[in-house]
From TrEMBL, chain A:
Keywords attached to this entry: Acetylation, Cell membrane, Cytoplasm, Membrane, Nucleus, Phosphoprotein, Wnt signaling pathway
Location, primary (coarse class): membrane
Swiss-Prot/TrEMBL GO biological process terms: cell-cell adhesion; establishment or maintenance of epithelial cell apical/basal polarity; neurotransmitter receptor transport postsynaptic membrane to endosome; neurotransmitter receptor transport, endosome to postsynaptic membrane; receptor clustering; regulation of signal transduction; Wnt signaling pathway
Protein name: Tax1-binding protein 3
Organism superkingdom: Eukaryota
Entry's localization field: Cell membrane; Cytoplasm; Nucleus
GO cellular component: adherens junction; basolateral plasma membrane; cytoplasm; nucleus; postsynaptic density; postsynaptic membrane
């Protein structure tokens, strides 16, 4: 999940579609985010590379829309509805997720176990070999 | 029999307080191995009045093995004790005699030379001023106002020169160095040449031609005195100021026990550096104690005595050198293979010694503290009220000394310091401490740790006559890596010098406004 500056970021991602839940006057998704380019990446307990300033899922409300959709704690959010999330400030990320006009958010998330699964399924000899399914710009 | 000796006073005390332990002590002394008698025990001084520092041994008594028995009932010490000189003392006396004669000759020689030069220098301007009046008084122009003003200037400058020369040169000499002091000799030669050239000029141009311009002559004399003041400035810079800036770090190690110190000195010649180091030696290094080396010597002897090499191949072998070489190699190899347990012995011996020292020290501290409680300083008012048993410090010291004498003696013997302190010096020190209201701890401080050499009396220094041994000439300057030795009768000081490095410093400017900080954020938002 580490990136090389100047090179395209490659990762194995999973598509997750979350339907927002209307609660009083708010649309809630049921998870919390942490991280961002204006935050301190060293405090991130979920990232493999402690210089990764991406946006991570830090908490999932059990039984909420995110939990139902299959979002897991520790996922790194790569895209929200087509918008890139890898170079976003914390506040911008929050705004992208909480647009009042959108009922559904489609996320592309990545986690380490995805890469491991791909490696195992391809060939048992492959270890830590980056062979992505999707190439993201 | 000197019944009025100082011992009779406290023999009464010690007899009373330690009656039951006396015989036990004596028998233990008897069972002590005689081989422990080291050189230091022989050179203990028993101060029968008058005290004579050169006399080493005391009488050999029938029942007492220990020599210094000033802590126990000394019924045995009488005026009939034998006095004898040990070999070292004889050597020391002869050396002192022959050296003092040689040194004095040289000292007086240089002193007379210096006095002659000084007189020449001071009388020259006066002679320049007076001679025209004596030789051609009628031709001489009268001295106007400006000229008489110059007289005052000459007088004051001469006075300043006199004071300056007295301050710089007429100080008691610190030491006698092996070679001449190069800078001083150069300066003396410079002054001499200078004065001679002035005299030459004066003799040729003024005396021969009998010049009438007296003001010119006075100005000439003033210029001489000015130039002499400048030469004195040069002398100050060369002799005093040049070596103030430290540029060498000298590491001084004593060859017998390895005590090491470092000193920073400026650019000096080797002999002057050696002098500076010796002055520091007396103040900083702890006193040389030969009794502490006996243990390592006995260990070394045991190593040597362990193996003997026999040649089984017969006498028809290589040259003697090759034979000796192979012999020593064989010994070294055998010693390496031998399973030696001397390290074990050393470890346990040292642990036992430390324990013993600590125990004796504890007893000593308690005894001294108790002794100090027996006396009290009398206040002014009380002095008038009770003129009963008033004592001056020396008597007070003698009164309380016996109660701590034994513990102190045992402690000194355990730490092998007993030859550094005589009973008289201990009582003197005790009186001194009592007079100055010092605590028992302050009194003990000089006995618990060996102090610098200066602290002890002259005859215990074991370091009086020094020889400078150097491969480079002793008047050459110090360089990086210079090594020289200062040898004295019992030990030597090894001195190595290292240059203090040249420091290249650069500067970095920090704008005070550039100190800015930002919080590390780690916020979590729920969406």
């Amino acid at each position: 999940m580490a990136f090389v500056p100047g090179q395209p970021v490659t990762a194995v991602v999973q598509r997750i579609e979350i339907k927002k839940l209307r609660c009083n006057d708010n649309l809630i998704l049921g998870f919390s985010i942490g991280g961002g380019i204006d935050q301190d990446p060293m405090q991130n307990p979920f990232s493999g590379d402690k210089t990764d300033k991406g946006v991570y899922v830090t908490r999932i409300t059990p039984g909420g829309p995110a939990d139902v959709a299959g979002l897991k704690m520790g996922d790194k959010i790569m895209q929200v509805n087509g918008w890139d999330m890898t170079m976003m400030t914390h506040d911008q990320a929050r705004k992208r997720l909480t647009k009042k006009k959108e009922d559904v958010v489609r996320l592309l998330v990545t986690r380490k176990s995805l890469q491991d699964t791909v490696n195992h399924s391809k060939c048992p000899y492959y270890k830590n070999h980056d062979n992505p399914n999707e190439v993201l710009k | 029999m000197d019944t009025e000796s100082t011992y009779s006073g406290y023999s009464y005390y010690s007899g009373r307080s330690r009656g039951s332990h006396r015989h036990g002590e004596r028998s233990r002394d008897r069972h002590k191995p005689r081989s422990k008698d080291s050189r230091s025990e022989k050179s203990v001084t028993i101060n029968t009045p008058p005290a004579e520092p050169l006399l080493g041994d005391s009488a050999v008594r029938g029942e007492q093995i220990q020599d210094d028995n000033w802590g126990e009932t000394t019924t045995a010490v009488t005026g009939t004790s034998e006095h004898s000189l040990s070999q070292e003392d004889i050597v020391r006396i002869t050396k002192d005699l022959e050296d003092s004669v040689g040194l004095d000759c040289r000292r007086y020689f240089t002193l007379t030379l210096a006095v002659i030069l000084g007189l020449l220098v001071f009388l020259t301007p006066l002679a320049f001023l007076v001679l025209p009046h004596l030789l051609w008084p009628e031709k001489l122009q009268s001295c106007g106002t400006a000229c008489e003003g110059l007289f005052i200037s000459v007088a004051f400058k001469l006075l300043i020169l006199l004071l300056a020369v007295w301050a710089l040169f007429f100080r008691p000499p610190r030491a006698g160095l092996p070679r001449i002091f190069v800078f001083r000799a150069l300066l003396a030669v410079l002054v001499l040449l200078f004065v001679i050239s002035y005299w030459l000029f004066y003799g040729v141009r003024i005396l021969d031609s009998q010049d009438e311009n007296y003001q010119g002559i006075v100005q000439y004399a003033v210029s001489l005195v000015d130039a002499l003041l400048f030469i004195h400035y040069l002398a100050i810079v060369l002799l005093e100021l040049r070596q103030l800036q430290p540029s060498f770090s000298l590491c001084v190690t004593r060859s017998t026990d390895g005590e090491t110190r470092h000193y920073n000195l400026g650019q000096l010649s080797i002999q002057r550096a050696a002098l500076a180091i010796l002055e520091h030696y007396y103040c900083d290094f702890s006193v040389h104690n030969p009794a502490l080396l006996s243990a390592s010597k006995s260990r070394a002897a045991k190593h040597l005595a362990g193996l003997k090499v026999y040649n089984v191949d017969g006498p028809g072998n290589n040259a003697a050198a090759g034979l000796a070489h192979s012999q020593s190699r064989a010994m070294i190899a055998a010693a390496a293979r031998r399973r030696d347990s001397s390290h074990n012995e050393l470890y346990y011996e040292e642990a036992e010694h430390d324990r013993r020292v600590r125990k004796r020290r504890a007893r000593l501290v308690v005894a001294v503290e108790e002794a100090f409680t027996h006396i009290k300083r009398m206040q002014e008012e009380e002095q008038k009220k009770a003129p009963g048993d008033v004592m001056d410090p020396r008597e007070a010291a003698q009164a309380i000394f016996p109660s701590m004498a034994r513990a102190l003696q045992k402690y000194l013997r355990t730490t092998k310091q007993q030859h550094c302190h005589s009973m008289e010096s201990i009582q003197q020190h005790l009186a001194f401490c009592i007079t100055n209201n010092m605590t028992p701890k302050a009194f003990l401080e000089s006995y618990l740790t060996p102090g610098p050499t200066l602290q002890y009396s002259r005859d215990r220094w074991l370091a009086r006559q020094w020889t400078l041994i150097s491969e480079a000439s002793v008047t050459s300057g110090l360089k990086d890596g210079t090594v020289f030795l200062l040898k004295c009768v019992d030990f030597s000081l090894v001195v190595t010098s290292k240059k203090i490095p040249y420091i290249q410093m650069s500067e970095e400017y920090i704008d005070p406004k550039s100190h800015k900080f930002v919080l590390r954020l780690q916020s979590e938002t729920s969406v």
